[in-house]
C-alpha cells in the first residue's frame, strides 16, 4: 500500500512539472509563434548549452590527449637526468584529460537521466539514486536493482565516469625512465701489435752484449709475474666511452705454445737404469737421497724454441704418476671478448688459429742489425721475432729448474715455477701435483694470459666497433 502511494505521488509530481506538460499544450504554444516541432528539436539539440558543453569538453580533452601523446613520442629514447618535471608534466596532462572527459560524460549522464524521466516512471527512491549519480553507491544500487535493463545506458554511463579516474593513474606510468637500448659506436681500446718494435712502446729493450735479443722491461716483468702467479686474468680498465658498460671484440697476432704429451716411458729415471730410455725426452732424477718431482728445460736454437716440462704427482705414502709435455712456440691469432659494466671488466681470451711456427718468423739477416744499443728500425718480421723471443725467454726462465723432495720433509725449490699457478706443493703432507686437470692445457694458456697482461700494461690502442650501454632514457 505504501509503495502505491509513493508511486502515485511520484506520478503527480511528474504531471505537475512544466517540463512534462501535455503534447497538445506544447504544440499549441509553438503554433502561436509559427515554430514547427522538427525545427524546435533541431535547434534545441544543436544549440543548447548542454550539447555545446558536452562536445566542447570532448574536443578539448582529445586535443590535450593528442598533445600528451606527442610529448611522450618526443621524449621517447631521449637521455634524461633526474628531471622530475617530465613526470609531473605527464601527470598534469593526464589529470586534465581525465577531468574534461569525466565532465563531458557527467553532463551527458544528466541529459540521459532527464530523457529517461520523460519516458518512464520511477519511485522516489529510484529518483534519489538517479540524481545522486555518478557516485559509486547509487550506481551499485541501480546496477543491483530489478530495473537494471530499463536504465542500462544510465548505469553504463555512470560506470564510465568512475572508470575515467584510472586515466590519471595509468597515463603517468607511460613515461618511465629505464635502461637505454644499446647503440653501436667506434671507441678506442687497448691492444698490442707485436709487428712493431717493442722498444717503441717501452715493454722490451735490446739486451747486451750483442743486442740481437730483447728482454722484458722491469715494470712489465712485474706485471707478467703477477699474471703467471694468479688464477685471475690481469686485464685493463674500461676505455673511454665504456663508463656505463660496453661489449666489444679485438683480434691480434700473438705468441702461444702448442704442446704435446710426452710418453711416461720416454722420461729418464735414474732409479730404474735398466728400463730407462736411451734417448729420453725429459729427465726426472730419482735416487735414494732425493726424488725430483719437477724438471723444466728449454731449447733456443736457430729454427725454433721448445720448452720441456716433466713432473710427477708425488705422494709420500702413495704411487707417483709421471707426466710430461713438449711445447713449441707458434704465431697465433688471438681473440678477446671484452665486457665492461660499471667499470668492472670481464675479458675472455682464446686462440682462434695456430698460424706458423716461430722458426718461420726468424729473418735471414737477423744479426746484421745488431752490434749496439741503438738498433736500427726493425722490419715487420724482425719485430715479431724480437717480441716473441723476449716474451718466450722470460717465460722459459720461470719454467726451468727442478723441485725435489729429500727425507725429513725437506724440499729443494730450484725453479720459479713454484711461484706460478701451474703446480701446488704441500710441504706438510709431502705432496706435489699440478693445480689443474691438464698441464698441457694450462701451458698453452699461459702466453695467452701474458699477452692480455701486456695489453693492460701497455699503451698501444686501436679502434673497434663496440656495443655501448647508455644512460637511462625516457
UniProtKB/TrEMBL annotation:
Alphabetical UniProt keywords: Membrane, Transmembrane, Transmembrane helix
Transmembrane helix in keyword set: yes
Membrane-spanning ranges: 52-75, 95-117
Keyword Membrane listed: yes
Annotated protein name in UniProt: Uncharacterized protein
Organism field: Armillaria tabescens (Ringless honey mushroom)
Taxonomic path: Eukaryota, Fungi, Dikarya, Basidiomycota, Agaricomycotina
Amino acid at each position: 500500500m505504501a509503495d502505491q502511494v509513493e508511486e502515485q505521488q511520484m506520478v503527480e509530481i511528474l504531471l505537475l512539472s512544466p517540463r512534462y506538460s501535455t503534447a497538445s499544450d506544447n504544440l499549441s504554444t509553438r503554433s502561436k509563434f509559427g515554430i514547427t516541432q522538427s525545427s524546435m528539436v533541431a535547434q534545441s539539440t544543436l544549440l543548447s548549452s548542454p550539447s555545446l558543453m558536452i562536445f566542447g569538453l570532448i574536443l578539448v580533452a582529445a586535443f590535450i590527449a593528442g598533445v600528451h601523446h606527442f610529448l611522450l613520442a618526443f621524449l621517447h629514447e631521449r637521455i634524461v637526468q633526474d628531471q622530475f618535471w617530465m613526470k609531473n608534466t605527464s601527470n598534469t596532462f593526464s589529470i586534465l584529460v581525465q577531468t574534461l572527459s569525466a565532465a563531458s560524460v557527467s553532463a551527458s549522464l544528466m541529459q540521459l537521466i532527464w530523457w529517461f524521466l520523460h519516458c518512464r516512471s520511477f519511485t522516489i527512491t529510484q529518483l534519489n539514486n538517479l540524481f545522486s549519480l555518478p557516485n559509486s553507491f547509487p550506481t551499485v544500487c541501480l546496477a543491483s536493482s530489478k530495473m537494471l535493463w530499463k536504465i542500462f545506458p544510465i548505469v553504463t554511463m555512470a560506470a564510465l565516469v568512475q572508470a575515467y579516474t584510472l586515466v590519471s593513474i595509468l597515463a603517468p606510468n607511460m613515461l618511465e625512465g629505464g635502461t637505454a637500448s644499446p647503440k653501436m659506436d667506434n671507441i678506442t681500446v687497448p691492444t698490442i701489435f707485436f709487428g712493431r718494435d717493442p722498444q717503441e712502446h717501452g715493454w722490451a729493450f735490446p739486451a747486451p752484449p750483442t743486442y740481437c735479443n730483447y728482454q722484458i722491461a722491469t715494470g712489465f716483468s712485474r706485471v707478467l709475474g703477477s699474471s703467471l702467479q694468479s688464477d685471475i686474468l690481469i686485464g685493463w680498465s674500461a676505455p673511454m666511452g665504456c663508463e656505463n658498460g660496453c661489449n666489444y671484440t679485438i683480434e691480434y697476432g700473438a705468441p702461444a705454445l702448442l704442446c704435446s704429451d710426452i710418453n711416461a716411458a720416454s722420461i729418464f729415471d735414474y732409479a730404474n737404469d735398466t728400463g730407462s730410455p736411451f734417448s729420453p725426452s725429459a729427465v726426472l732424477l730419482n735416487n735414494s737421497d732425493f726424488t725430483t718431482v719437477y724438471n723444466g728445460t728449454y731449447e733456443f736454437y736457430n729454427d725454433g724454441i721448445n720448452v720441456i716440462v716433466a713432473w710427477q704427482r708425488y705422494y709420500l705414502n702413495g704411487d707417483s704418476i709421471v707426466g710430461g709435455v713438449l711445447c713449441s712456440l707458434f704465431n697465433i691469432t688471438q681473440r678477446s671478448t671484452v665486457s665492461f659494466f660499471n667499470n668492472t671488466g670481464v675479458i675472455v681470451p682464446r686462440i682462434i688459429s695456430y698460424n706458423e711456427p716461430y722458426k718461420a718468423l726468424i729473418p735471414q739477416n737477423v744479426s746484421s742489425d745488431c752490434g749496439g744499443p741503438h738498433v736500427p728500425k726493425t722490419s715487420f718480421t724482425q719485430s715479431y721475432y724480437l717480441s716473441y723471443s723476449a716474451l718466450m725467454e722470460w717465460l722459459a726462465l720461470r719454467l726451468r729448474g727442478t723441485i725435489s723432495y729429500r727425507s725429513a720433509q725437506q724440499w729443494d725449490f730450484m725453479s720459479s715455477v713454484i711461484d706460478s699457478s701451474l703446480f701446488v706443493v704441500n710441504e706438510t703432507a709431502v705432496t706435489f701435483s699440478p693445480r689443474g686437470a691438464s698441464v698441457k692445457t694450462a701451458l698453452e694458456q699461459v702466453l695467452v694470459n701474458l699477452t692480455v697482461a701486456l695489453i693492460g700494461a701497455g699503451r698501444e690502442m686501436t679502434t673497434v666497433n663496440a656495443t655501448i650501454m647508455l644512460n637511462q632514457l625516457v
